[in-house]
Design brief:
Blueprint: H1 14-18, H2 49-59, H3 77-82, H4 88-112
Length: 114
Protein backbone atom coordinates (compact mmCIF):
# COMPACT_ATOMS: atom_id res chain seq x y z
CA UNK A 1 0.00 0.00 0.00
CA UNK A 2 1.25 3.45 -0.93
CA UNK A 3 1.89 5.48 2.21
CA UNK A 4 1.15 8.83 0.56
CA UNK A 5 -2.01 8.09 -1.42
CA UNK A 6 -3.29 5.11 0.54
CA UNK A 7 -3.84 3.18 -2.70
CA UNK A 8 -3.02 -0.49 -2.88
CA UNK A 9 -0.83 -1.61 -5.78
CA UNK A 10 0.03 -5.12 -6.92
CA UNK A 11 3.69 -6.04 -7.02
CA UNK A 12 5.26 -5.83 -10.43
CA UNK A 13 5.90 -9.60 -10.42
CA UNK A 14 2.63 -10.54 -8.69
CA UNK A 15 1.34 -12.92 -11.39
CA UNK A 16 4.76 -14.52 -11.73
CA UNK A 17 4.81 -15.17 -7.99
CA UNK A 18 1.57 -17.18 -8.29
CA UNK A 19 3.00 -19.58 -10.88
CA UNK A 20 5.04 -22.66 -10.01
CA UNK A 21 8.76 -21.92 -10.30
CA UNK A 22 9.24 -24.29 -13.26
CA UNK A 23 7.00 -22.03 -15.35
CA UNK A 24 9.11 -18.94 -14.70
CA UNK A 25 12.49 -17.84 -16.00
CA UNK A 26 14.23 -18.97 -12.88
CA UNK A 27 17.52 -20.80 -13.36
CA UNK A 28 17.45 -22.08 -9.76
CA UNK A 29 14.30 -24.08 -10.57
CA UNK A 30 16.31 -26.57 -12.58
CA UNK A 31 14.81 -25.44 -15.87
CA UNK A 32 16.62 -24.12 -18.91
CA UNK A 33 16.01 -20.49 -17.94
CA UNK A 34 13.70 -19.92 -20.90
CA UNK A 35 10.45 -20.55 -19.06
CA UNK A 36 7.38 -22.02 -20.64
CA UNK A 37 5.42 -20.52 -23.50
CA UNK A 38 1.67 -20.83 -23.00
CA UNK A 39 -0.91 -20.19 -25.73
CA UNK A 40 -4.57 -19.79 -24.89
CA UNK A 41 -7.11 -20.06 -27.67
CA UNK A 42 -10.80 -19.26 -27.50
CA UNK A 43 -13.15 -20.52 -30.16
CA UNK A 44 -12.00 -21.52 -33.60
CA UNK A 45 -9.48 -20.08 -36.00
CA UNK A 46 -10.96 -17.33 -38.16
CA UNK A 47 -9.73 -17.32 -41.73
CA UNK A 48 -9.87 -14.43 -44.18
CA UNK A 49 -8.16 -16.04 -47.17
CA UNK A 50 -11.35 -16.02 -49.22
CA UNK A 51 -11.94 -12.31 -48.59
CA UNK A 52 -8.35 -11.39 -49.45
CA UNK A 53 -8.38 -13.57 -52.57
CA UNK A 54 -11.64 -12.01 -53.75
CA UNK A 55 -10.26 -8.51 -53.12
CA UNK A 56 -7.00 -9.19 -54.94
CA UNK A 57 -8.78 -10.70 -57.95
CA UNK A 58 -10.80 -7.50 -58.35
CA UNK A 59 -8.31 -4.84 -57.26
CA UNK A 60 -4.81 -6.33 -57.43
CA UNK A 61 -2.39 -7.32 -54.69
CA UNK A 62 -2.71 -5.68 -51.29
CA UNK A 63 0.15 -3.42 -50.28
CA UNK A 64 2.16 -4.98 -47.45
CA UNK A 65 4.57 -3.34 -45.07
CA UNK A 66 8.06 -4.72 -45.65
CA UNK A 67 10.02 -3.18 -42.79
CA UNK A 68 12.71 -0.61 -43.31
CA UNK A 69 13.32 -0.10 -47.00
CA UNK A 70 16.36 1.77 -48.28
CA UNK A 71 15.67 5.48 -48.58
CA UNK A 72 16.49 7.54 -51.63
CA UNK A 73 16.07 11.16 -52.65
CA UNK A 74 12.99 10.30 -54.73
CA UNK A 75 11.45 8.26 -51.91
CA UNK A 76 10.34 11.20 -49.76
CA UNK A 77 8.08 11.16 -46.71
CA UNK A 78 4.94 12.18 -48.64
CA UNK A 79 5.27 9.20 -50.99
CA UNK A 80 5.91 6.85 -48.05
CA UNK A 81 2.85 8.16 -46.17
CA UNK A 82 0.69 7.70 -49.28
CA UNK A 83 1.19 3.93 -48.96
CA UNK A 84 -0.38 4.01 -45.49
CA UNK A 85 -3.64 5.59 -46.66
CA UNK A 86 -6.21 2.87 -47.31
CA UNK A 87 -8.24 3.03 -50.49
CA UNK A 88 -12.03 2.80 -50.48
CA UNK A 89 -11.76 -0.81 -51.68
CA UNK A 90 -9.32 -1.69 -48.89
CA UNK A 91 -11.63 -0.15 -46.28
CA UNK A 92 -14.48 -2.31 -47.64
CA UNK A 93 -12.24 -5.38 -47.26
CA UNK A 94 -11.34 -4.38 -43.69
CA UNK A 95 -15.04 -3.93 -42.93
CA UNK A 96 -15.76 -7.47 -44.17
CA UNK A 97 -12.93 -8.82 -41.99
CA UNK A 98 -14.26 -6.97 -38.92
CA UNK A 99 -17.80 -8.25 -39.56
CA UNK A 100 -16.50 -11.82 -39.74
CA UNK A 101 -14.64 -11.35 -36.44
CA UNK A 102 -17.76 -9.87 -34.81
CA UNK A 103 -19.87 -12.77 -36.08
CA UNK A 104 -17.46 -15.31 -34.56
CA UNK A 105 -17.30 -13.37 -31.28
CA UNK A 106 -21.11 -13.36 -31.06
CA UNK A 107 -21.20 -17.13 -31.54
CA UNK A 108 -18.44 -17.59 -28.95
CA UNK A 109 -20.25 -15.33 -26.48
CA UNK A 110 -23.47 -17.32 -26.87
CA UNK A 111 -21.58 -20.60 -26.28
CA UNK A 112 -19.88 -19.25 -23.15
CA UNK A 113 -23.04 -17.68 -21.72
CA UNK A 114 -25.22 -20.79 -22.04
Amino acid sequence: QDEVSGKTYLRRDFVKSLLPSFLCNNDSSGGDGKGLRIQIQFGHEIKFDDLIKEHEEKHGKLWKYRGKEPTSESNNTAIQQENWVSSREERILYSKIVKRIEMHLEVLTKEVCR
